[in-house]
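Sample pair:
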Amino acid sequence: MKKKERGGAASPAPEGAPDAAANPYPPGAVPSMGGRELVLRKEESGSFLFDPETSDLSCLNHVGSAVWEMIDGKRTVGEIAAGIAAKFEDAGLETVMKDVSAFLGDLSRMGYVTVDEKKR
């Protein structure tokens, strides 16, 4: 089982993958689950996202967990960022937008989500 740290800030992109922080998703893009059956387990210190197909285990902090729970195929990246900024008031919307976009880039590269940039 491989364990990876995931959360509000993005980890470095694998070689050859696009850098989500440099090319953030537009606020109107809509993320949705990537079709894989993942298991989310919430703990007091954060959450764990388990991929039974690959046995990968990703650790999400509270912000990453909140983002994950807001991905429904209907909310835009901007709506998710606004919800996170309202819930975690210690960061401005611009910073949250960049972090959410970068985190979604991580999840997309892992095959956990897809992001439709043309939906809205």
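The helical segments are 62-70, 77-87, 93-109.
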